[in-house]
Specification:
Number of strands: 7
Order of helices and strands: EEEEEEHHEHHH
Keywords: Membrane, Transmembrane, Transmembrane helix
Region (Disordered): 1-23, 101-120
Helix content: 25-40%
Low-confidence stretches: 1-18, 79-104
Biased composition (Low complexity): 1-17
Number of domains: 2
Radius of gyration: 29 Å
Largest sheet: 4 strands, antiparallel
Shape: rod-shaped
Mean pLDDT: 67
Structural class: alpha+beta
Transmembrane segments: 130-154
Strand content: 25-35%
Number of helices: 5
C-alpha cells in the first residue's frame, strides 16, 4: 500500500447533511508521485491523518475536496481517530492548479507538531525553562558563596583571637 504524506490546505468548513451528521471538508492537491486509485495519507490542519484513495480520474496537481466526519476529528478517544483507516465519504474535484511547490522547484510540506516520546523532545520543549533554571541556580549559588566568603573574611581576625 503506497502512501504519500502531504499537507492539506486549511479550508475546513462544517456542513450538515440530511442525517444531521456533521462533516468537515478539506482541500488537498494530488501529489506528483501518486498514482490513480492509490491510497495516500493526508494530514489535516489539526494533525489528524486520514487515508484517502485517489479515484481513477485524478491528475497530478489537481485540487480536490474530501470530507471527514467531525466526530472523528474531534474525539481523540475513538478508534477511528487513532487509526484513520477508510474514513472518506465524498470527493469533489476542482480545477487543476499549479502549486507553489511545483512553481518554485522545491517541495514545501507543513508538518504540525505532534507529541513524541523521544528523549530530545523533552529538552526541545522545555529547553529554555531548564536553561533559565540552571542559570538562576548558578547565580544564586554565586551570591550565597560571595556572602559567606565576605562574612568569613571580615570576621577572620575575630576568629583568630579565640583560637
Amino acid at each position: 500500500m503506497g502512501k504519500t504524506s502531504f499537507s492539506s490546505s486549511a479550508s475546513s468548513s462544517a456542513s450538515k447533511r440530511g442525517s444531521s451528521e456533521e462533516v468537515m471538508q478539506f482541500r488537498a492537491v494530488v501529489p506528483p508521485n501518486a498514482k490513480n486509485g492509490q491510497p495516500i495519507k493526508v494530514k489535516c490542519p489539526d494533525g489528524t491523518e486520514a487515508n484517502v484513495k485517489l479515484p481513477a480520474s485524478a491528475k497530478v496537481g489537481q485540487e480536490f475536496l474530501f470530507e471527514l466526519p467531525a466526530h472523528v476529528l474531534l474525539d481523540p478517544s475513538s478508534a477511528a481517530y487513532q487509526s484513520n483507516r477508510g474514513i472518506l465519504s465524498k470527493f469533489f474535484f476542482l480545477e487543476e492548479t499549479i502549486t507553489s511547490s511545483s512553481s518554485r522547484g522545491g517541495k514545501r510540506t507543513n508538518h504540525p507538531r505532534t507529541s513524541s516520546s523521544h528523549p530530545n523532545d523533552f529538552f526541545n520543549r522545555y529547553g529554555e525553562s531548564i536553561t533559565a533554571l540552571i542559570i538562576g541556580a548558578l547565580l544564586g549559588l554565586c551570591i550565597v558563596t560571595g556572602f559567606l566568603s565576605g562574612i568569613l573574611l571580615v570576621t577572620r581576625d575575630d576568629v583568630d583571637l579565640y583560637l
